[in-house]
Amino acid sequence: MSEFASIDEAELRARTRVLLDEIHPEQTDSQTFRQAQYDHGLALVHFPEGFGGLGLSPKMNLIVRDEILKHSKVFYDNPPASIIGIGMGMPVVNTYATDEQKRRWLPKIFSGEEIWCQMFSEPSAGSDVAGLTSRAVRDGDEWVVNGQKVWTTVAHLSRWGMLVTRTNPDVPKHDGLSYFVLDMQSPGVEVRPLYQITGEAEFNEVFFNDVRIPHENMLGKEGQGWRVAITTLMNERVAIGGGGSKKKGGGAISQLLKLWKERDPSTASAAQNAILRDRVTQAYIEQELLRLTTQRASAAAKAGNPGPEGSVGKLFQAESAKRLWELALDVLGSDGLAFEAGYELRQAAGGTDTTVGLAKYQFLRSRANSIEGGTSEIMKNILGERVLGLPGEPRVDKDVAWKDVPRS
Amino acid sequence: MQTFTDEHEELRATVRQFLADRSDENAVREQMASERGFDDSVWQQLAEQVGLTGLIVPEEHGGAGYGYVELCIVAEEMGRALLCAPYLSTAVMATNALLHCANAEAQKALLSGIAEGSTRATLAYAEAGWNVGDIALNAQEKDGGWVLDGTKHHVLDGQTADVILVAARTGAGIELFRVEGDATGLTRTPIPELDQTRRLATVGFASAPATKVSDGDAQEGLERTLALTLIVLASEQVGGAQWCLDTAADYAKSRLQFGRPIGSYQAIKHKCAEVLVDVEFAKSAAYGASRAAADCLDGEGDWDSLFQSAHMAKSFCSEAYFHAAAENIQIHGGMGFTWEHPAHLYFKRAKASDLLFGDASHHREALADRLGI
Ligand SMILES: Cc1cc2nc3c(=O)[nH]c(=O)nc-3n(C[C@H](O)[C@H](O)[C@H](O)COP(=O)(O)OP(=O)(O)OC[C@H]3O[C@@H](n4cnc5c(N)ncnc54)[C@H](O)[C@@H]3O)c2cc1C
Description:
The complex is a heterodimer of chains A (408) and B (373). Chain A is of the alpha+beta class and 408 residues long. Chain A contains eleven helices and ten strands. Chain A folds into three domains: 9-77, no CATH class; 116-223, Butyryl-CoA Dehydrogenase, subunit A, domain 2; 231-387, Butyryl-CoA Dehydrogenase, subunit A, domain 3. Chain A has helices spanning 9-22, 30-39, 61-71, 83-96, 99-111, 225-241, 252-262, 270-300, 310-332, 359-365, 376-387, and strands spanning 116-119, 135-139, 142-149, 160-166, 177-183, 189-194, 200-201, 203-214, 218-219, 346-347. Chain B has helices at 6-22, 25-33, 40-48, 68-81, 87-101, 104-116, 219-254, 266-297, 303-331, 343-355, 360-371; strands at 121-124, 138-142, 145-156, 163-170, 173-180, 186-190, 200-212, 256-257, 260-261. The two termini of chain B are 25 Å apart. Chain B folds into three domains: 6-116, Acyl-CoA dehydrogenase/oxidase, N-terminal domain (Butyryl-Coa Dehydrogenase, subunit A, domain 1), CATH 1.10.540.10; 121-217, Beta Barrel (Butyryl-CoA Dehydrogenase, subunit A, domain 2), CATH 2.40.110.10; 220-371, Butyryl-CoA Dehydrogenase, subunit A, domain 3. Chain B has 373 residues and is of the alpha+beta class. Chain B is built from eleven helices and nine strands. In chain B, helix 1 (6-22) runs parallel beside helix 4. Chains A and B meet through helix 8, helix 9, helix 10 and helix 11 of A and strand 8, helix 9, helix 10 and helix 11 of B. Flavin-adenine dinucleotide (FAD) sits between chains A (117-121, 126-127, 151-153, 202-203, 368, 371-375, 377-378, 381) and B (255, 257-258, 262, 265, 267-268, 330-331, 333-334, 337).
């Protein structure tokens, strides 16, 4: 017996057509359509019935996509500002929340009506996020939170935030954390933009000043926040690592190939052109293999949440993207000296910035790929230690009360 | 081998102090966002107090008459501080174009102004590519004078220069012309730069009146000017790379994660060590090239070794700088990706100075040609 529900491909396609008969993407907006998609269990088919899914294998999600694209010129992909909510918020809520909470949160995350952010990193705790300093103290049926988060993507647009904070400083760091869903409209939450290399602010600093959270918004038990956080992070890595193209030759590589074809070869020597051509081909191979590796990983995916092997795709995606956009600048040659988008400081509208199509923008933006969602160095540690079973580094912060660990 | 004397170290210390006072991070950020891109009062001080604008201008024209070892020390410090000023254009490119392509009359007319700080000049040469041989912009005689027609790209400080020296084609080959910044028929369009600390412009000429300042074909002189410019640029890159290394290593010592300085992890320690090796090799390339330039201009060396070391330095230092700047961002984590931290300013300068005058692989090919590889 399979661990998944017994709906085959034909049946799933039929159900998708029922959805399309009821409401068609070409005749409605993204939010309305995605809401209906959720109600039909076709949002994330690997989610349980009644919560946006049908209890199927995650790889069957592609069938729904394929069937919609067969019948509609319009396809409502995940809204850019909702990537975090859909990629991380939904799996965490699905794994840890009560049914009532799931009904409250899941449909609105998927439809894009409510944006979610991830409030893990703090100024002193990035790679070592479990070392974080912000504090929640119990007060009756509520928790009172004080402290600061940093690098919080889309916090300025968010209605809800996934918050990891310290509820017990006297035990080793992993044991003293708890996980909450915070209403970002609560009094005492202050969001300030943080500008980045491109001049945009995708991320923010978030300050908590006696912010009150109802106890029922704790996901998992008190002191189990790290387990819940790990679920979030593993999903994040798959969301990022799997962010490569779904189509052969699509995504970033298609942009590079377009630059290559449009470029005037007469400004460079034959030798220069040959060198660039080889590098462009190498980039093609990398992106194509990233696509195939993601495909292979998702075919092998089991029910439930992903494990540490998601770091393979995340690591390669980050490093290959940096190489690809660096190469794009070399392909542009002296045109690469101009940055048409300009550096005006501005808050990002959630990934819909028109500059995204610009190779030079991507050249700058891709530098974050090996930092966000866990750095490349941390990915290598995870692959070495958690996947290959190599011995870890000597640790000075294990089995020591959090409050006694040195921090900067 | 290049070694530095006490006088050299003194010069370095003076320039570093001057830049610490007048071109700290705040000043750089202010200038890079300003319309003209540099501070006139700093330029004046650079000329009058420190005598840097005329560093290689011969004494007979009011300059200091120094050579490339000194010039490259100054450039290294400017690169380290990311000084926003029309130095590479005026004190290096235009000055060299005058010294290597122009007649005595033109030298006399312009060099003293450059040394005094009253004239800011640039050289407009590149069109479709970076090779001097590709210059096509047309110069024609008209009413006893000359007019220019065409477009020059990536002209350093082209928007603000008082005088633009233009390489253009005549019946005699490629010659050098002088065009005033306010000439009729001249359009100067600033480029929105990737690297905001160095200004570039597209300069258009529509029957723009010009004075011919070369006597006969100036192609070889232009090639020399460019090679000397590459050597100075490579020195700038070394200064920037060293800043990235210093900044990264300092951070690796002070930032704690998992209760330990991040520099105690081999992943970070080895990155720093690899950048160190690159910076040391970049220094060998740039210092070697400045020595080769000094020897050649003193009549003790030859132009061929100067060209070779210029191409070698520009290709190696470009990649070393980019490597150092990229790793500096990575070692700083999220902080390195912010606007607030200066790491990105160096990263942008590194890539832009790699692309400027042809990227690393362009110069490797030029070197291969010289070596007969
Ligand atoms: C664009 C962007 C968006 C982001 N969005 C979010 C978000 O929405 N929510 C959120 O919570 N966070 C977010 N982050 C934060 C991100 O997760 C952290 O920046 C990242 O985990 C690194 O932490 P740090 O910046 O503190 O760097 P540090 O952890 O201080 O790392 C500094 C350097 O040390 C290295 N290092 C650290 N520990 C080790 C080790 N044990 N072994 C080897 N090397 C090590 C790192 O690899 C890095 O090179 C975002 C970051 C970026 C750049």
